[in-house]
Specification:
Blueprint (H helix, E strand, L loop, with lengths): L2 H11 L6 H13 L1
Helix pairs in contact: 1-2
Length: 33
């Protein structure tokens, strides 16, 4: 996992209202970029 993906994860996990679906969507976006 590169630094950008890690930063994205940290940002997402830092927001308590984020759902697992949002996390999965963000991961798919970062992997597809």
């Amino acid at each position: 996992m590169n630094k950008i993906d890690y930063d994205i994860l940290q940002y997402i996990l830092g927001h308590s209202q984020t759902t697992q679906r949002d996390i999965a969507k963000a991961l798919q976006h970062s992997l597809g970029a």
